[in-house]
């Protein structure tokens, strides 16, 4: 088995879920975001290229519009997202001395060659100017057939788009377990996954967090998409800062190893064909 080596990763996508952005489901919090921002700055000091995929817009807008019930209509969710997007960006900006930039995407953007090429060039230009791209789904306009479904999949698609070599999914669980650890205290953490097949996907459970749009299954599906494009994935607990051991070449979560390393070169050639 290959030993985890963080130094080899130079182009990293980090996905942060709503449970870390807005633990109370109604506002942005520094509790988990500030330590993660410090981790990002350490990665950047090591000359690693970081792209952040951040959830939390709907939760961030909640206290402003204060909907009357917990069952939100599509119009209400889109209105909350419209208010919350700027709050999330401002929330992240205060943790960084350099500029951050908001990049909003829909599934249709990724499916259209011209628009995905534009997104690729924009992200590349932001990195060239040492601006941290913060990506989220454009919830204010996305309807069901245009939605990614969850930001785990969005993060995986962004990783494929920019030819990343590592996807880090920061959640409120320690990684992939042999069973649901919230229901079964005997469940064991799976440290390394070589291939994501049906038996591994069957380990996915619905999220225990009502603010999240996906559970472990969506993370495994995202890791599978990344794996098929030669991208490794780490699923770890952002609440316990389990990403910090990565700096010491230790994975405190679940490491999904790509089984197609040559795809990285192929993906690079594909991306270089963009006009």
UniProtKB/TrEMBL annotation:
<keyword id="KW-0547">Nucleotide-binding</keyword>
<dbReference type="InterPro" id="IPR001057">
    <property type="entry name" value="Glu/AcGlu_kinase"/>
</dbReference>
<dbReference type="InterPro" id="IPR011529">
    <property type="entry name" value="Glu_5kinase"/>
</dbReference>
<dbReference type="InterPro" id="IPR005715">
    <property type="entry name" value="Glu_5kinase/COase_Synthase"/>
</dbReference>
<keyword id="KW-0028">Amino-acid biosynthesis</keyword>
<keyword id="KW-0963">Cytoplasm</keyword>
<comment type="function">
    <text>Catalyzes the transfer of a phosphate group to glutamate to form L-glutamate 5-phosphate.</text>
</comment>
<feature type="binding site">
    <location>
        <begin position="213"/>
        <end position="219"/>
    </location>
    <ligand>
        <name>ATP</name>
    </ligand>
</feature>
<comment type="similarity">
    <text>Belongs to the glutamate 5-kinase family.</text>
</comment>
<dbReference type="InterPro" id="IPR001048">
    <property type="entry name" value="Asp/Glu/Uridylate_kinase"/>
</dbReference>
<dbReference type="InterPro" id="IPR041739">
    <property type="entry name" value="G5K_ProB"/>
</dbReference>
<keyword id="KW-0641">Proline biosynthesis</keyword>
<dbReference type="InterPro" id="IPR036393">
    <property type="entry name" value="AceGlu_kinase-like_sf"/>
</dbReference>
<dbReference type="InterPro" id="IPR019797">
    <property type="entry name" value="Glutamate_5-kinase_CS"/>
</dbReference>
<feature type="domain" description="Aspartate/glutamate/uridylate kinase">
    <location>
        <begin position="12"/>
        <end position="237"/>
    </location>
</feature>
<feature type="binding site">
    <location>
        <position position="55"/>
    </location>
    <ligand>
        <name>substrate</name>
    </ligand>
</feature>
<keyword id="KW-0808">Transferase</keyword>
<comment type="pathway">
    <text>Amino-acid biosynthesis; L-proline biosynthesis; L-glutamate 5-semialdehyde from L-glutamate: step 1/2.</text>
</comment>
<feature type="binding site">
    <location>
        <position position="151"/>
    </location>
    <ligand>
        <name>substrate</name>
    </ligand>
</feature>
<feature type="binding site">
    <location>
        <begin position="171"/>
        <end position="172"/>
    </location>
    <ligand>
        <name>ATP</name>
    </ligand>
</feature>
<protein>
    <recommendedName>
        <fullName>Glutamate 5-kinase</fullName>
        <ecNumber>2.7.2.11</ecNumber>
    </recommendedName>
</protein>
<feature type="binding site">
    <location>
        <position position="139"/>
    </location>
    <ligand>
        <name>substrate</name>
    </ligand>
</feature>
<keyword id="KW-0067">ATP-binding</keyword>
<feature type="binding site">
    <location>
        <position position="15"/>
    </location>
    <ligand>
        <name>ATP</name>
    </ligand>
</feature>
<dbReference type="Pfam" id="PF00696">
    <property type="entry name" value="AA_kinase"/>
</dbReference>
<keyword id="KW-0418">Kinase</keyword>
């Amino acid at each position: 088995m290959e030993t985890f080596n963080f130094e080899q990763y130079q182009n990293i996508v980090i996905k942060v879920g709503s449970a870390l952005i807005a633990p109370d489901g109604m506002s942005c919090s520094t509790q988990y975001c500030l330590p993660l921002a410090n981790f990002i700055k350490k990665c950047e000091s090591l000359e690693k290229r970081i792209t952040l995929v951040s959830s939390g817009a709907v939760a961030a807008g909640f206290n402003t519009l204060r909907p009357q019930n917990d069952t939100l209509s599509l119009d209400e969710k889109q209105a909350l997202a419209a208010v919350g997007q700027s709050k999330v960006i401002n929330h992240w900006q205060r943790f960084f001395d350099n500029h951050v930039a908001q990049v909003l995407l829909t599934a249709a953007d990724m499916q259209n060659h011209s628009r995905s090429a534009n997104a690729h060039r924009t992200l590349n230009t932001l990195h060239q100017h040492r601006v941290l791209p913060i990506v989220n789904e454009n919830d204010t306009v996305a309807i069901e057939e245009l939605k990614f479904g969850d930001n785990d999949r969005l993060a995986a698609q962004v990783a494929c788009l920019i030819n990343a070599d590592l996807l880090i999914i920061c959640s409120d669980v320690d990684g992939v377990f042999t069973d649901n650890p919230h229901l079964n205290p005997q469940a064991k953490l799976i440290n390394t996954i070589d291939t994501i097949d049906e038996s591994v996907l069957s380990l996915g459970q619905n999220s225990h967090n009502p603010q999240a749009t996906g559970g472990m299954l969506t993370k495994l599906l995202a890791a599978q998409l990344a794996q098929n494009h030669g991208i490794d994935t780490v699923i770890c607990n952002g609440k316990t800062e389990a990403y910090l051991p990565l700096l010491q070449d230790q994975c405190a979560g679940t490491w999904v190893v790509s089984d197609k390393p040559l795809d990285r070169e192929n993906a690079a050639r594909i991306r270089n064909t963009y006009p």
